[in-house]
Design goal:
five-stranded antiparallel sheet, homodimer, 9 strands, about 0% helix, Jelly Rolls, mainly beta, about 100 residues
């Protein structure tokens, strides 16, 4: 049993990625952001589908086609494989906890 | 964009299952329980892996080997394929929201 709100990493200068499940073509990941935007240059461009949800905090996801999604607790979004995207904002004052599921 | 805390079903006499993503061998589901225990008889016995998390509320998952997991917000659990399990308790006073990811 693992609690996704617990044991938050303490280094606020970087974003933290932790695999919770990684089996076959499926990966479930917790991401903890402290105001980071990522990537700093260019776009995420993934070969897998990504379903992402904000568990706590706030983050803004931008697609390269101009669409923008402002996510707070409970908000989820499907990022299709090959959909270029980036995180343009996370709350600098508090930890933003993301849950991401990657699959084919 | 979908918020998993929003638009909760109003019928409290039954448990509610809603697919959020269903692609290939992966299914992401929201389950809303209002005190239900399930299944009423026997055990869940699934051919897929299930990673489950409580987003809100409280639920107790029991395995047929006697292990018991008392989950509140943020708690997550991997139920291996073929691991017989059931939900022995959910909070009758409030909605319990589960997030389940099924995969091979």
């Amino acid at each position: 049993m693992m609690n996704l709100f617990a044991n938050l990493p303490t280094d606020r200068t970087v974003e933290h990625f932790q695999d919770i499940v990684s089996q076959g073509n499926v990966r479930i990941e917790r991401i903890v952001s402290y105001g980071q935007q990522s990537p700093e240059q260019g776009w995420y461009d993934q070969s897998q589908q990504e379903w992402v949800m904000v568990l706590q905090g706030r983050g803004i996801v931008v697609f390269d086609d101009g669409r923008e999604f402002d996510l707070t607790a409970g908000d989820s979004l499907l990022v299709a494989a090959g959909q270029k995207h980036k995180v343009s904002y996370t709350d600098p004052a508090h930890a933003t906890i993301w849950l991401a599921v990657f699959f084919d």
